[in-house]
Amino acid sequence: MTRVSATEFKNNIGAFSDAAMNEPVIITNHQRDRLVLLSADEYRRLTGITDGISDADKERITRGLERHRSTIIELANR
Known about the structure:
By secondary structure, the protein is an alpha+beta fold.
């Protein structure tokens, strides 16, 4: 999981947006977690929004869940 300051995120938004396609990016402010950037697919999976998503995408999202399970659990427990 990647953790960056808001200033660092602002100065390198493209790189961190790309990173969020593979894992959540936590954006901090004054050394406190403030936001989490994740891919749209991961957001849809977490919220249960599946309209218009193909079976192949659903399968890929499910695999992403397995890959990020510990991160999601850690964030949920905060």
